[in-house]
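The freezer alarm interrupted the setup, so I double-checked each line after restarting. Inputs confirmed:
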Amino acid sequence: MNTSTRNPVRFTRILAAGFVISMIATGCALKPVYPEGSAEVRSKLDRLRSDPELAGQAPIETREAEAAVVVAEQSIGTNYELGEHRVFIADRKVAIAMARARTGYVLDQRAGLSQARDAARSKSALAQAEAEKRVDDASRSTAKMQQQIDLLEAEATARGQVLTLGNTLFATGRSDMKSIATSSLDKLVVFLNDFPDRNVTLEGHTDDVGSVALNQTLSRHRADAVKSYLVTRGIQDRRITAKGIGMDQPIADNLTSSGRQQNRRVEVIIDNPPSAIPATSKL
Amino acid sequence: VSEINRNYRFPATAALAGAMLLVAACASVPTESLNEAKLAIEAAERADASEYANAELDEARQTLMAAERAVVEKNMVLASHYAEQSTVTAELAIARTEAVKAQAVNAELERGVEALIEEIQRTGNLQ
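Predicted 3D structure, all chains:
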């Protein structure tokens, strides 16, 4: 009796439960499955938090990502689709936090870069100014040299600037200088002091009075006389080369006394510098 | 009989409550979520995400379309999920766009600094 009345009730209960389950199954499936991928999302978030460059860069987004990961992890027992959905949302929130943290890091770096750029800019401006100054100095020094060469009344030749110390410098047969010549030599001293990289060659010449051998020696003595004068004025010995040419290169007629006087001379050759002359090579 | 009735009443109530819950959860169109997704996609478009994070922007658009299809199919839970996924994906597109843009500015700065240093060296060598 008892069992006969209970059985239909139990059957009805089962029917009712079955109806609810089938409704749920068609509406929102309710399968208690642990959400796949939540562990991966958690480890992604942990990586962000332990990244020395990114940790702490996007605190708000990181907190939101944390909350989303917790929701995803607590989806055990909810339906599969909901769990999957929550893992998806959590994954994206972690990715957003990462991108925001990256942006924050990049903006931090930018401050340093801007400083480096500003420093480089002022350094560049300084270098530019220095370079301009060097060009200016070089052209000023070139101009100055030209001015002094002009003062020496030297003649430009392939060998260098040639300055002839003639005119009453030496008497026939003598190598001691007349004081009148020293004013043009003093200009040479100024020039050699101002341009320490320029050396000189002194070439002594004679008229044709006397023997070849005598004139050879005499020409050398004349060159030496000029050299010792320059040395007494403080020009280094090694910058001066003295040569005796003799009587073979007259510049005037030896038949007249004025011609012979012109031939009694020392030619000062300001040697071209070993490198290009600044006067002819512009920067 | 009274005992039988009592036993029967509980599952009936449970079924009714369950059905009501389902109606509340599933039946209405998730208008707010859909609007939010649309706004997020528009914001991403304005942020030039098509240039810097096109894959994410495209995914956000596809997911919004899936949400709208789910609405047509009367699967409102799925529609709501898709709408939320579309929103978060559009937000990711914006975040990645901004990261790439910021990085590009830094790279430009770096190049500028390098060019300046090179220039300084060139100027310095010009003796």
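Quick read of the result. The interface with chain A takes residues 4, 7-8, 11-12, 14-15, 18-19, 22, 25-26, 77-78, 81, 84-85, 88-89, 91-92, 95-96, 98-99, 102-103, 105-106, 109-110, 112-113, 116-117, 119-120, 123-124, 126-127 of chain B (CB under 8 Å).
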